[in-house]
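subagent[fold] <- orchestrator: predict structure for attached chain, return tokens only, no commentary.
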Amino acid sequence: MQNNNLSDTDIFGQALTDYYQGNYKQDITTHISLDETDVLPLPYLFRNYDQMPVLEQIALGLSKGKVLDVGCGAGSHSFFLQNKGLEVTALDISPGAINVCRQRGIQNAVLGDIRSFAGSKFDTILLLMHGIGMAETLANLEPFLLKLRSLLNPGGQILLDSSDIIYMFDQDKDGGYWIPGNVSYYGEVQFITEYQGIKSDPFPWLYLDYQNLNKVADRAHFVVELVREGGHNDYLARLSIDC
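subagent[fold] -> orchestrator:
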């Protein structure tokens, strides 16, 4: 249930619950620290396979074995893989999201934070819809990847998509970009989500270019593969563990 204590408000979960219960009146608004405001349409979070971007479709096609869907949201990816016969664990920190997943028929929907999640090993970990952003900062990326590695079986893989957001910064005549001096890495941003007049506290998020992913993942002893580039500075990557 919504309340006015912003730190306790499950904005995302409330929006998903409203939509699933037929109370769809408005979408989620996102405010990003780069002076950008966008709208996240709730129907998009309940999309089927044919409505998904190509990068997500490829990632689902590459998924194998026992799957952990991190930041599962309404469970669209988990639902598709479960229907294909894979054993899927849908994980999210939003109580509302997990309740919706369970109501939709996802058999193993777990409320929890990936940073403290333990107790099982997986063949595939999904971090779709820019889920690598949960690392929050470039400096925290290596320990975040090492945490994920600890959850993988031998021969396991991480499938993730992200974007290089350098295009959002002004460019000078020499081709360089104007990056604020108080930013350690240009892909580190702050988000605020808003729904029905209630705003979340700001929270950090990481948009990660492929070159930095490759460099840090190599330090974490992953084999890194650029699976596919998208059309909007985005990409799909696979991080795997040698058997």
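orchestrator: received. Logging for downstream: The CA atoms of residues 28 and 40 lie 5 Å apart. The two ends are 46 Å apart (CA to CA).
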